[in-house]
Fold this sequence. Notes:
alpha+beta; 2 helices; 3 strands
Amino acid sequence: xxxxxxxxxxxxxxxxxxxGKTVLNVLPPTKEHKFCWFAGDPNEYGARMRGACVAGxxxxxxxxxxxxxxxxxxxxxxxxxxRLLPRADAPKDYQ
Length: 95
């Protein structure tokens, strides 16, 4: 489980790296994973997120999250490894 100091640090890094950036594209998962859960169909995420700007990021309990201007929230918890990468550098398999 993420400890609160880690959550606060991750949220600060998200604010520094993500706030004000616009989602250009969303890549659906390439490999199923039984411990990776989605709200709705992940193949529809692109249509819901494309063009939205990151409004903020915060941490609470053992979660770090960022928010898009359209109200969507993305929570990160223990075991999640979110990365901001150029598409060419994305790993072959990801969720």
